Amino acid sequence: MAPEKQVDAKPGRRAALRATMALIVFVGLIALLVFLQPESLYLWVKAFHVIAVIAWMAGLFYMPRLFIYHTDAEPGSVQSETFKVMEKRLLKVIMNPAMMISWALGLYLAWDIYGFQGGWLHAKIALVVALTLAHMHQSRAVRQFAVDGPRKTARYWRLMNEIPTVLMMLIVILVIVKPF
Ligand code: HEM
What we know:
The chain is mainly alpha-helical and 180 residues long. The chain has 5 helices and no strands. The protein has one domain. Helix 1 (9-36) runs antiparallel to helix 2 and helix 3 runs antiparallel to helix 4 (119-146).
């Protein structure tokens, strides 16, 4: 019997199950906090918001790196098939849930604390919409690679990798400095 490989379906299912369990615990904890309404609720929600944002950013920064090396891998090769599994799991198990939790908790904070008022908050949300478009662009590329569809160049993905980085810097400055 050939030894099990990480790209095989079984380890993939195990990873997805573990991630689902973690997500249920994470969302369950937030629901419990909102139910219990501790005085420090705002700080707990902000902490979970930043945790989700860090996971989302990790995915947005790493995915274009996979694309850069995937462009060199011959369609149908073992390497290309391995990249497909890595890209799909990064998107489905980490990036999508992290993006949804970042949005849900961010909008909760914006509504509960600021009543959606503040120039910095409006500018921040506009930049997060741009970040979400970058996420959707990467998600579409995962699907393109998965069907061995037309590919962008490695240079294209190196440039694309800069967009989430610049957006992240501007977003963090806006929310911490609140310049306007
Ligand atoms: C998805 C839409 C988002 C909304 C509506 C949103 C909204 C907010 C709000 C209202 C706060 C509380 C600010 C305070 O009390 O000082 C906050 C905190 C924070 N947000 Fe977001 N956010 C979103 C996404 C993001 C993203 C994508 C990032 C990073 C790239 C980010 C980084 C942060 C940080 C670092 C804090 C903590 C700031 C502090 O403690 O001073 N947020 N967010």
